[in-house]
Amino acid sequence: MRVVGMVAWACIWLLLLQLAGASHVVYDENLEVEAAAAAVPPSIVDPLLRTGYHFQPRKNWINDPNAPLYYKGWYHIFYQYNPKGAVWGNIVWGHSVSRDLINWVALKPAIEPSIPSDKYGCWSGSATTLPDGTPAIMYTGVNRPDVNYQVQNIAYPRNKSDPLLREWVKPSHNPIIVPKAGVNATQFRDPTTAWRHADGGGHWRLLIGSLEGAARGVAYVYRSRDFKRWTRVRRPLHSAATGMWECPDFYPLSTAGRRMGVETSSSSAAAAGSRRRQANKYVLKNSLDLRRYDYYTIGTYDPAAERYVPDDPAGDERHLRYDYGNFYASKTFYDPAKRRRILWGWANESDTAADDVAKGWAGIQAIPRTVWLDPSGKQLLQWPIEEVEALRGKSVTLKNRVIKPGQHVEVTGIQTAQADVEVSFEVPSLAGAEALDDPALAGDAQRLCGARGAAVEGGVGPFGLWVLASANREERTAVFFRVFRPARGGGKPVVLMCTDPCKSSLDPNLYQPTFAGFVDTDISNGKISLRSLIDRSVVESFGAGGKTCILSRVYPSLAIGKNARLYVFNNGKADVKVSSLTAWEMKKPLMNGA
Predict the structure, then answer these.
(1) Fewest CB within 10 angstroms: 71, 216, 304, 381, which?
(2) Which residue spans of the chain are classified as CATH 2.60.120.560?
């Protein structure tokens, strides 16, 4: 990472690891990969495919977002970073700071292997604000490479008066948590933000993700009074037969029906009591090491029993997800400046390791999202942070435009390779919706989208956007809705949201999966909305006001820069009206000196 001077700031003011794993599997950057990089198609290394306003360092590999926090007027994001190349390895904690979560300045790495308990790895972790306002970082270290033995460490700022937190020190009492009898030491990582609760006897708690037996993911609770000596609670906070739980996250949300976050590390009993009254729902999120996605449940937390119970007894099987696309190892934090909870998540590349070496970079972070509880209490809602709207530039608008079956309409007047699009659709009649009569597809949105993608004519839909499309549309990425009627009659219509990148590029060597999720919304009035953030090689979409979110990585070979086009399409048998559509060109922020 490059250090950018404060004067400059004031003036501006995959599938391979990609399938192998996020943080914890070493990939060999060998001569074969280097040789293969020489044969990468020119379009892949085109700098216009490097994202314009999503977070990434100037070069090299990144993965998990770590320990996001707000301190003395500055937002901080740390991240797993390889300073020596564009594949996983040599991991340190990269560190960047911002005033607005959009413009970022890179600092030197914050945490690097330097003590016996992290000699062979400084892996993911979280930040906690202590009672005196000091931030503390808890992270996983590896101290025995032969067996991948994982322990937990702590680091503090060297100078608490420095708002940029440029230097961190590791006290001599590290490691602070080690796996004892009965804990799988090779699957024991990613400590959460610690919290206190009025009913908890003054103890700090945190969670560590692990694996029991062959397939049971667990979140172990550790408690401490002094933040130095930690003891494991006898039973896990929660567990499920899902495989290893990486990067756990656990936090309260207000049930007041507002986009309000709730602080978790305040030490006063009064504040804790207020939290208990205002936020009686908790979210437990885990990243599934086997399936490579994040899922969450919503439930209740009993601090006396140290137990969490999902509201939905089948929640650990149904797998509500933050994002139904390329989104992993996520981490939230409470933003005291705007009293909101913000979600970060990593999006890997879906090209090859050789492509990444040729490009010189791999991995981005999704646009930070505000997350809050849906009024139903059954799921979360997410929306891009409001600050991203400051990047909006020239715009165009469509209103009350009817798209006939089989038609498409181009949105012209702006450049759309780097854009923000908000559209409201209205379907006059749902009578022609297809029956969702295949049991194998009815409960599996991704399989349903794969079987009935954007090119398959339907009754009501598919309708939506073609983004990053070439002039003759031989390249295009579809983001769309499709409406079904329940197979046995009765009940509300079933809404599928899908991103279909099967035609996104003429390059044959790309991983191009369809991504999909069902949208729990009432479309009986025929209305539904979509927002898509388009950024050169990423499409990040939010359906029905943030009920369903899908991020997809795409690498056009033709629809690059000024050659990228945007369309509204309808491949169903029913008319679809675009009640309103506004598309903005997006300006490029300061991004770590790039």
Answers:
(1) 304
(2) 392-586
Residues recorded for the chain = 594
> Sign of the C-alpha dihedral, residues 350, 354, 358, 364?
positive
- 């930040």: which residue's tokens? 127
332 CB contacts (<8 Å, ≥6 apart)?
68, 249, 251, 285, 341, 342, 343, 344, 371
Could you tell me which CATH number the domain at 62-268+278-384 has? 2.115.10.20
SS3 assignment for 52-94: CCCECCCCEEEEEEEEEEEECCEEEEEEEEECCCCCCCCCEEE
DSSP 517: E
Q: pLDDT value at position 202?
A: 87
Which tokens sit at 129?
């604000």
Asked if 189 contacts 171 with a C-beta cutoff of 8 angstroms, the reply is: no
Please confirm, yes or no, whether 64 is among the known catalytic residues: yes
- Is residue 388 within 8 Å of residue 361, measured between CB atoms? no
pLDDT the model gives residue 27: 44
Residues of the chain with CATH 2.115.10.20: 62-268+278-384
Residues 6+ apart with CB under 8 A from 346: 22, 62, 63, 64, 65, 79, 327, 328, 329, 330, 363, 364, 365, 366
**Average pLDDT for runs of 10 along the chain of length 594:** 33 32 46 73 94 98 98 98 96 98 98 97 97 97 93 98 98 97 96 86 94 97 97 97 97 81 58 50 96 96 96 94 98 97 97 95 98 96 98 98 98 98 97 92 95 96 98 97 85 95 94 96 96 98 98 98 98 98 98 90
The answer to whether 342 and 68 are in contact (CB under 8 A) is yes
What fold is seen in the domain 392-586? Jelly Rolls (2.60.120)
Interatomic CA distance for residues 71 and 97, integer angstroms: 10
Query: HSE on the CB side for 107, CA within 13 Å?
Result: 22
Residue 450: in which H helix or E strand, if any?
Answer: helix 445-451
Total-model pTM: 0.93
Tokens of 411: 């949105």
Q: Of residues 64, 289, 335, 500, which has the active-site annotation?
A: 64
